[in-house]
Amino acid sequence: MTPRQEQTVRLPLTGDSPLEAPAAWETLRSGCPVATAELPSGDTAAYLTRYADVKNVLADPRFARPAATDPGAARVAPDGAGGPAADADGSVAIPDRGEGHQRWRRRVGKYFTAKRMTALRPGMTAMAESLVDAMVERGGPADLKASLGFPLPVFVICEILGVPAEHRERFSHWSDAFLNVTRFTAEQTRTAQAEFTRYMEAHVAAVRADPGDDLLGMLVRDGGAEEDGGPSDEELAATGMGLLVAGHETTANMIGKMTALLLADRSRWERLVADPALVRTAVDEALRFDANSGFGIRRYLTEDIEIDGRPLPSGTTVVCAMPAANRDERMFPDAASMDLTRSPNPHLAFGAGPHACLGQALARTELQVALEVLLRRLPTLRLAVPAGELHRLEGLLVGGLREVPVVWEESAA
């Protein structure tokens, strides 16, 4: 058996354009499925690109996001500049692993039911319609991300958390700081995090005094007081902060990327215009096909393991490259092609196992609603620039596009 070649890559890996997969992924999957990755911090980690390896590590309850107490855990951001999502941070009150984490997931997961997502859908649709109305009134070309991609998830997550959507510009800044890798200085990041924490602590105090029907109100009513085993104020604040970031930043970026992917080869868009019933499978295929999702998910090994013949000792940080795994031909036939009818589609865009994204039903619903409204209202939509001239979102843990310039036939709007 020919020994596999050791390779070192520098993250984030990028393709020739923001919508294209890096050629290195296929090379790594074929010849070095467990590579060494150098992060912007200068730290190194093991880098996994095969579907089976990524899913196995993500689904293993022994391994979780690196914590401040984990010796030698690899940091993403240089000089400790990253926010809690980018680097291990002991101040985040949500337990990362074990029974404490599962208890938190059980509490929060009660909110994200299929019934509740169905109930939220009409409001999402009305908001998307209103945002498209405003975009059409302003006229093209327009930035779809700024016009629809960003505001729709903000309004939705603000409703879920019971915070005013008028504060969305502040939320956006704080979210960027939370996900910072190289965009802000360490001092700017600390200041933003402190402001965000104070804001959410004040909101939690208001919820304690008068719990509503939102998620935090549910946690207070169902869990009771902290002394009775209910969630602490710190846990509630951390939950609100984490969901505000995850609930709008990633979905806002994905609405823009999904639309750009469908318009980059306009036959995809035209097929959906002709057959809107494909929206659900098209959304999941866009999630699978997305090559620009950021750095991947880190996991800290608490035991010695072996992956593809390479021993990884306890204390190793592993970066799971979900978008690379989602292009693995071993799992997805014709993986390099975007198949709008692909089903089943067991992609890993939302992770897997005990740490899989709790809000994935919400994200899917928002993406479906955004696409349904755009197809119905703007069937003539197209990119205003060639796909290769789109610009990546830089300096954050998540991937995305800086803007998604679009045009349409005014008479059709």
UniProtKB/TrEMBL annotation:
InterPro entries: Cyt_P450, Cyt_P450_B, Cyt_P450_CS, Cyt_P450_sf. This is Cytochrome P450. Keywords: Heme, Iron, Metal-binding, Monooxygenase, Oxidoreductase. It comes from the Bacteria. Gene3D superfamilies: Cytochrome P450. Residues 66-99 are annotated as: Disordered. Its cofactor is heme. The keyword Heme applies. The keyword Cytoplasm does not apply. Residues 70-90 have a biased composition (Low complexity). It comes from Streptomyces harbinensis. SUPFAM superfamilies: Cytochrome P450. One of its GO terms (molecular function) is heme binding. Belongs to the cytochrome P450 family.
